[in-house]
Design a protein that fits this description.
Largest sheet: none
Order of helices and strands: HHHHHHHHHH
Structural class: mainly alpha
Number of strands: 0
Oligomer: single chain
Strand content: under 5%
Length: 285
């Protein structure tokens, strides 16, 4: 009963961790009930038809991402669908093969005590979250860059590498009795791929961050140019108003002189030659 209980809890935590990773990279707001419903569905499938349960828990996120296809980019959707499963698998094994052995906890001990498997699952998301924060990977920058289809060939390489890693990992696990030093090969594969995985994340993040900075600088330069044009336009309008004020004062002076001399013909002449056109000029401009 003890082993069975921890096995079921570990599986539930495993699905929740993958879901959290999926939410982290995609930015989707996952409904709370899915954290309870999905583990039940996948576990039921495992008991009814094990192969379907296994593959559905792996490929569900890929199908969901392709179905949503938030940014209209299939290469990006594939990345989003594979990322959470690979990260969970990768860091599960990093903790198992590298971190816990440093504390004197071998794989044999982990296999004997199911609670350790649960502990590993609980450590995956905090470990990866802390690591991405330490190396300053901003997933919003990744989303912006990916959505603009920048560096799509690098993203395609990333997409191809993830299933290759996962398939090789399963081959070394399934045929452990046939392949010499299969466990050592798994450890080496995990070590190599975790380095590649992090380097690719850092590379893509830095490229997208540089591109975002370039775009912001370009926008600021455009804003400064527009502001300069606007300032010059305001200056030209002010000059027109100044000239109009000067001319208008002269006109009023002429009219005042005509009024003082009671010279109606000069007042009429000023109106017909100057003032009657002023209204038309204002309307036209």
């Amino acid at each position: 009963i003890y082993n069975f209980l921890f096995k079921e809890i570990t599986f539930t935590v495993h699905i929740i961790v993958v879901l959290m990773l999926y939410q982290q990279i995609t930015g989707y707001k996952v409904r709370l009930y899915l954290y309870f419903l999905l583990p039940i569905i996948f576990r039921a499938l495992f008991y009814i038809v094990p192969p379907i349960g296994y593959f559905s828990s792996l490929l569900f996120w890929l199908f969901h991402s392709l179905y949503k296809n938030k940014f209209g980019n299939r290469i990006l959707a594939v990345f989003y669908g594979l990322y959470p499963v690979v990260v969970e698998s990768l860091f599960n094994r990093v903790i198992t093969f590298d971190l816990l052995p440093m504390l004197g906890i071998s794989i044999n001990i982990i296999n004997k005590f199911p609670i350790l498997s649960l502990l590993i699952e609980l450590l995956i998301f905090p470990t990866f979250y802390f690591l991405t924060k330490t190396i300053q990977i901003d997933f919003k920058n990744l989303q912006i860059g990916f959505s603009k289809n920048q560096l799509k060939y690098y993203l395609l390489m990333f997409d191809i590498s993830m299933p290759i890693y996962f398939v090789l990992l399963q081959v070394f696990s399934i045929f452990a009795d046939v392949i010499p030093d299969a466990l050592k090969l798994r450890e080496n594969l995990v070590g190599i791929y975790v380095i590649y995985f992090l380097i690719m994340l850092i590379f893509l993040h830095s490229k997208f961050a540089d591109e975002i900075d370039r775009e912001l600088k370009e926008q600021k330069d455009n804003q400064l140019q527009d502001l300069e044009k606007y300032s010059k336009h305001i200056e030209s309008l002010y000059e027109e108003i100044r000239l109009f004020r000067h001319d208008y004062i002269n006109i009023l002076t002429s009219i005042k002189s005509g009024i003082e001399l009671k010279d109606i013909s000069s007042i009429q002449n000023v109106y017909e030659t100057v003032l009657s056109k002023t209204g038309k000029d204002f309307s036209d401009r």
